[in-house]
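SEVERITY: medium
COMPONENT: batch folding queue
REPORTER: lab tech (J.R.)

DESCRIPTION
The queue accepted two submissions in a row. Attaching both inputs and their returned structure tokens so the on-call engineer can compare them side by side.

ATTACHMENT 1
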Amino acid sequence: MEQHYPDIVAWFRGAAPYIKSQRGCVFVIYCSGEVIADAGRLPGLIADFALLHSLGVKLVLVHGARPQIEQKLKSGGISARYANGLCITEEETLTLIKETIATIRFDIEARLSMEPVNIPAGNAAGGHHNRIRVASGNFVTGRPVGVRGGVDFGYTGEVRGIDTHAIRALLDTDHIVLISSLGLSPTGEIFNLNAPDLAVAVAASLPAEKLVLLDGARISSAPPWGRRPGQIALSEAQSLLPGGKDARGMPGEDREGEETRGFYRHLGRAVRACRAGVRRTHLIDHRVDGALLLEVYTRDGVGVMVCADAYDTLRRALIGDIAGVIRLITPLEEQGILVRRSREKLEAEIDRFLVMERDGAIIACAAAYPCIDTSDSGPAVKMAELACLAVHQDYRNAECGNALLMAIEKETRARGMTHLFVLTTHTEHWFREHGFSRAGLGELPRTRQRMYNENRNAKVLIKPL
């Protein structure tokens, strides 16, 4: 068992900044009916909800019930009817739907009540509770979808309003809020709501820091445009949708396969949530053990994250970045890949650096040094040296190096440089793949020739700008 300790310590150290920054934040988590029906994985997921709660995250859970409703209707000899991705709810089916949703809600409450609070000091008011407090209620006002495209959806509804004041009050008193996919009208009618769309509405109304969409195959299926990205900006996510839409449902003809259409529907919901003020929306396959914790408490997660703001930031380095740059380049200096730089040298030259930041951590850096030779007999030689290009080992296949190189080229070109050169001992082929050519020492500016370290014997590569 001892051999696992380093992994646990490393993970905990990596998770610590997220635990601290997310304490007190509101997460709205949608669990599809398929997730609830997965008897083998649901207990672990409930335990993860309890763990998030004990770490100070304010949780709002929105549950689906589609497969359970379909099974209930089937057992009653009724076939579920759908149009444009929405269930058609008739009066005879509404009673069965209410029974099914109530059963699921009480089951989730019972499971959460079995989980320990894990807060030995008790709550802020001085009381001690040996179980999690869960609250449900009439938080959602609904209205009928009505007749659309000639289809009467009956008691199928959509969200009209969310009682955010009541939800916030319960969250502030250490409750987990559980919301079912039913909406009440001011006249006492009950409407069957689309659960993931309800989760989007709740997250946008609060607004939540995160919206998490937990599902199975609909999230894990690879979209036609290739592998699922790990993190994407809001603008990119919207461009990936059919026609660039953020509509509530993708038409069935647009994509082949219900699972793929489901992925696009969830991606559309993520876009809507982020546009409404939710900073980050996560699409997670619940079948990955511990997926929720891995997504929330690790830098790269295991799902798809849509960000309202940029997740990776490429910017000019600041004096406060020096510690992060040192952590990044020290292993490469020890291997002899980079020339050693003292902290004092970095402090003096930090304005030469660009850094790539992911979620507060420096994951890549590069610097450019102008080298200009003037001569009475000819035009000045204007070149820039690319130096200290370093990418964290976890991101060397993530195009970080390409992005930094392109940024350095753009910047030096704007400053009137005609060529970019680099001295390298280990990565000649990478630079040649990116447009650099082998050159001789004599082709460098004279000032740089005099500084050349023959003991290092670095290769000279030049790229015209």
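ATTACHMENT 2
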Amino acid sequence: MDLKGSREILSNVRYLQNIRPIDPEEIEEYISGSVGVDLIRSEIRDNAFQLGLVERFDGKFTPVSEDPIDPRVVEVLKIPEKYSARLEDILREKYGKEWQLGESGEIIRERIRGIKKDYYEGRGVEYDEENALAYAAYHFPGYYVAIQHILNKISEGGLLKRKLRILDVGAGIGGPALGISDYIPENALVEYNAVEPSQAADILQILMEERGANVHLNIHRETAEKFEPSGVYDIVLFANVISELENPISVVNKYSKFVSKTGAMILVAPADKNTAIELREVERAISSNMNIYVPAISLWSGQVPCSECWSFEVMPDIEIPSFQEKIDRGGQRKGEFVNIDVQVAYSILRWDSQTLFRHPGDISRCVKLSDIGTRIGKRVDIIVVKLSQDLSEGQNSLFLVGDGSEKIDNYIVIVKETPQNRVMAEAEYGRIVLIRDVLVLWNEDETSYNLIVDKETTVQQGLKGSGRDESSDTN
């Protein structure tokens, strides 16, 4: 279609879009010459995000609502069968009908082993076609589920827009991209910009063919260091790529400047110790400018934590995808190629002062964790964020906590659970808790503080719902 025809179509669309639903058949009546309904529909789709139009099930287009997506919690326990089937199609196209057997099956298994080994030993992974396929077979399901769980945190605060411009840096094979596409309701409008230089982008492109009509995909085959963003984005995502960047703090800081004033920067990393701690290091560097929305909220202004903070969230296991079952059957050790544990470290940062949780009451008597070493052997009040699930192995419940001032790790140890302190064990990951009369002890073996919760201790849970955390103003 020539430029004149395009302008004529878009001019008519702009005129009608706030009057009635846009019907490509009606637009055809106003166009000079013979263009055809299909070309008109295609032109509208190509410009839908700029026009602010969503495509309905009947093929007509209407303006996207300015209201945010209704707060909700989505729980996903498996990947949709259509993605399993499509990934198996890709594997068949590469290796043949019985891709999981014989030499091809062993190639996939060896590639998975190699990726896991390189990743855990801190070496970079080159994503050629075979590595990208192996990576997809092992990691795609977990990353698809994890990003939806993380999006729940933004949605619960009522902060997820219905029109979203997203930048996915290091998009890989598209696990997070598909997770986000499926999370967003059909009447939302998304411009999805995926930055991925490797052959993993080929798999992403194929899998994203299953996306909804109102998710508009752009793939940029450049590295994170070389890509130059344009404009601002409602979500900038770094999912499972921070450890592969040569200078992650510098790169993430560069992209933070392109997060809109009401948008979010999302950082995600595997839960293993090195990558999870590295994410916290990046988070802390970026939080000198941006505000942590969840989970490691800073509760004291002017404080910077420097503890190790191996913090991650454990989410429900997912069902084993059919392609992982097939790969695993040929392995020597059952379960070696099944990856259904969804455990990730993550951070959501914003330019405004919004936090998902707020403190529950008067904290004037609370001691900062940076000063907790001066209270050993004494009982104190503290206000902290729960930063782990139960870390004990059947003994006294154990939880990592922080308040944004800690210099070394601090652990809550529940030696006597009562109705007055039970909320500590029940509180979700990232929740703020106010703990009164906790006993401070030094743990020489672990070089950390043990904060003992017993029959004298009471625990109050923080409030949920996006808003300014007033405790951040406390000195």
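NOTES FROM REPORTER
Residues 469-475 have pLDDT under 50 and may be disordered.
No errors were logged for either attachment.
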